[in-house]
Design goal:
This protein is α+β, with helices and mostly antiparallel strands. It folds into 2 domains: 123 residues, Aminopeptidase (3-Layer(aba) Sandwich), CATH 3.40.630; 38 residues. It is 45% helix and 18% strand. A 4-stranded mixed β-sheet has the order 1-2-3-4. α1 runs antiparallel to α2. The chain is globular. The relative contact order is 0.11.
Length: 179
């Protein structure tokens, strides 16, 4: 099946994306081998039913970006993506999304879903804002609030450390070649 052949390309481009020097931090969500194994198992089955495909963007015969799409009943959902970090300055991810949206229009798709979250790039494609709310019912609300506070603090610290590391790497790469 063709989609099974394209998944490793998607995995490689997705894993390379965090190396891009952009203001947006990208995580390698496909690093765990169990996630890749899951996708290798499930996506070809969905593709056989016409419910999944991998969109590839090629430049001069070389694949430079990929996007996994899921779809059913005239609605397409954009899922994992990846691109060559060297092309980040050309908004290669946005170009890939534009090509997939163009293909969706040509195929009569009436809706496109960007998965949950308020990522900045999503606002380029639509104006509808969705508000998410979480409700937790607990016997010990203080314990739940303490755990949530710890998780938020840990996430904020991780984000701050990533920014500092990126800054130090840029400074080191600017200074070390001169030594």
């Amino acid at each position: 099946m063709e989609v099974a052949r394209f998944l490793p390309i998607l995995f490689g481009l997705h894993s390379a994306r965090p190396e891009a020097r952009t203001s947006i931090r990208h995580l390698d969500c496909l690093k765990p081998s169990r996630r890749r194994a899951f996708l290798l198992d499930v996506v070809p089955r969905l593709a056989a039913r016409g419910e999944a495909f991998v969109g590839l963007l090629s430049v001069d015969g070389s694949v430079v970006a990929a996007q996994l799409c899921l779809g059913k009943d005239g609605v397409r959902s954009l899922y994992y993506s990846g691109y060559r970090p060297t092309l980040a300055r050309y908004s290669i991810g946005m170009l890939t999304t534009a090509a997939i949206l163009e293909d969706a229009v040509l195929r009569g798709v009436h809706g496109v879903e960007f998965l949950r979250g308020a990522n900045r790039f999503k606002s380029r494609w639509g104006r509808a804002t969705r508000i998410e709310t979480d409700r937790v019912l607990a016997r010990r609300p203080r314990t739940v609030r303490a755990r949530e506070g710890y998780a938020r603090g840990r996430k904020a610290l991780r984000k701050r450390l990533h920014r500092w590391r990126s800054l130090l790497e840029r400074i080191a790469s600017a200074v070390l070649p001169q030594i």
